[in-house]
């Protein structure tokens, strides 16, 4: 629906502005670049585990952010996302309220209020792991969410994909996400070798459409709804 589309656009706008503001307030201030310490190993993210204990008696708490600002900048970004959401999202909901049910008007806000604390804890605990595994996580999520969406929408052919513009928007969004994951892994250090990898972006969707007639997701969904 147009209401859901507007909420997606607003969320994208909020996150984009939060990212730009986060970069501007980080060192060097006023620039879209960041000056960071080099990450050499995973333990650089968890300096609190290496507080010295002279003579094994007293622990000296001298923890510092060895990867500054790569660890704290994520928390700053989440804070700006939350502030912008609370300022802008209610205005949008009020404007499009006629297109939403009473129970649906603030679901996106409530969902964000749940997800932001979860994401903050994940960053606090697994920041280093996320730093190294981020490109692979993006690739896996793009594959899984695309498969789930297409099966839930009962897309079994190219014709089913072209019936609704929304499906094409979702498909292209997943392709952008998949391309971003490939670029993150390759880092485009060698353009002549890495750029051809982007040709693999449509491969998962094509594989799904070619094999959907064998798996019949619509039959699986109907049987699941009947309790089989």
Automatic annotation (TrEMBL):
Keyword Ribonucleoprotein: no
Keyword annotations of the record: Membrane, Signal, Transmembrane, Transmembrane helix
GO cellular component: membrane
GO BP: ERAD pathway; response to unfolded protein
Bilayer-spanning residue ranges: 68-88, 109-131, 137-155, 167-183, 195-212
InterPro entries, per the entry: JAMP
Pfam families registered for this protein in UniProt: JAMP (PF05571)
Signal peptide (from-to): 1-26
Presence of the UniProt keyword Ribosomal protein in the record: no
Molecular function GO terms recorded: ubiquitin protein ligase binding
Name recorded for this polypeptide: JKAMP protein
Record organism: Ceuthmochares aereus
